Amino acid sequence: MKTKFFFGAVILAVTVSIPVSAETHSAEVIVTATRTSQSIAQTLSSATVVSAADIERYQPTDLLDLFQHVPGIDLARNGGAGSIPSLFIRGSNTGHALFLIDGQRFNSAGLGSTSFQFIDPSQIERIEIVRGAKSSIYGSDAIGGVIQIFTKKGDSKPSTMISTEVGSNVLKRTAISTRGAYNQLRYSLDASYLETDGIDAQLEDREQTRDNDGYRNRSINANFGYTFDNGVDVGLGILEANSRNYYDNASDGSRGTDPYSDNTIQNIGFNISAPLTDWWQSKISIGRSMDDIDDTNAVDGSHLSNFRTTKDQYSWQNDIEIFDGQLATFGVDLYDDELIASTTYTDTQGALVKERMNRAYFAQYQGKFSIFDYVLGFREDDNEETGKQDTSNFALGAQLGKSHRVTISWAEGFKAPTFNDLYWPIGAYGAGNPDLLPEDSEIFELGARGDYSSWKWEASIYQNRIDNLIDWAEAGTAEYPSQWVPSNVSSAKIKGGEFSADTNIGGWDITTSFSYTDPRNQKTDKMLQKRAKKKFTFDIDRSFSRLDAGLSFNATSKRYTNTTNTANLGGYGLLDFRLSYQLAEKVKMQLKANNVFDKHYRTASESYHMDGSNWVLKFTYTL
Description:
- By secondary structure, the protein is mainly β.
- The protein has one domain: Maltoporin, Chain A (Beta Barrel), CATH 2.40.170.20.
- 6% of the residues lie in helices and 57% in strands.
- It is built from five helices and 33 strands.
- It has helices at residues 2-16, 52-58, 63-67, 135-138, 419-423, and strands at 29-30, 38-39, 46-50, 73-77, 85-89, 97-101, 104-105, 124-131, 145-151, 159-167, 171-182, 185-199, 213-227, 233-246, 259-275, 280-297, 303-323, 326-341, 355-369, 372-383, 387-400, 404-415, 439-451, 455-474, 484-505, 508-521, 534-544, 547-556, 559-560, 568-569, 572-584, 587-594, 614-622.
- The protein has a 22-stranded antiparallel beta barrel.
């Protein structure tokens, strides 16, 4: 009861305050919602932009430190830095969030998840998070939403920075970055190295699990671009992160092992954008992304497994301004998934399966009429394994006066089965299921916004129904009586709402949000696992001449860890502090303290630790 009262009191205080000096964010631009540039205040989707200023302010060690501030996103993890996370957008599955890096799709074809935990936040310019189904413009996986990461690019103001960090768990990090422009050429280069002893991930120590599980990461990001006199723009970007993460395996058969994963993620993209006429902009993108994981037993050096996804991608997009306020977008997307693994994947005929092609075309129309604006979209994906899938969307917005806006939207989404779902080798306890259907969804959403000279708020309610959910189901045979296989076993209905507000009161920048999610299995009426029903965030920051100070409070309710909802992990609240001080003209010091009250909590399993109170001290020198 006290927790509920606290949530309500803080939200009410921010909502009814009479702020005195803050600036609106209406001019902030977003491209992910429609694949075209538009003001975030005018988008018809629920969206959040994590800017470069936010990244500097929050001082994140990894992307999870940033996502915990975003409404509608819930996180779960076993262990410390580098361990595999789960990310739920509005209660949907981890694989229902499509990740893009500079427009390129990025995930594992085997698991369907994304290794975003290895991306260095210091190499990111901004992140756009769009909540709600977006398959009608992006295809498979975009059931819960889309998260697009934009890496740092060069600009007209040259700069070079060197930073070093130390912190809890023997954390050490060094980074260098340089960027600038020369006439019409722009460039950017970032490199970093992080190492930490980590924490002892598994709660029950036995044999080789009785140790800290360390993590190290080497990352590089390079971008080059050139704009010709006729307006044609070309760009080349390369992002690569190599990491090693030690982990504890909980299975009884793993005794005497000390496993670690060597991971490589890579994204290479080339694009050319050309104004064919005053009203026709065309863009071609070619890229390749890679997600490679190799598991090894550190005790005897034996190789355990390896899975490498390579995704070749091609896209052609055209934006045609029919007349003022009317924009038609159409194009084609092609991507080819190749999976090379220690596990052999075969189809029902016994033929080796290593890759599959997906071809798609899409069309979208955006228009304005009087106080109304609207978006209508359609896409057809043709996957050589799962066949054709059509998805559509429609959204309508109305501007009520200068400051208020209401929106209503409907959209379809889908997710194609992964290689593991379809082709996992037949064994005593598991096998793939080649008869799986794609998961599909339908979401309705109603939203309202208020945007004033000194503060703004946003609220939405939604219902998302997901059919043909893929989950493990018993499928025992005479030969394998204990066998389970992925199956289209159920449907889920997710109801929820979000509220966020930000303002400035007496020089203090305040941002707060509250998310409510009720994700239930339609057959059993039980909550889906590992999702928290309620999430509350509160951030407050202020600048005092050369000193910046801030505080964050993040709280979530309990979450269930089994399908019958008889076991759960308790809710928790974490308090973080941050400071930044300009020691000299070119030298800055930053200090971050997380979980300052050393709260004991779990997000995925009672069997694994989460990091307690920890800190990081950083010095940055600008050349």
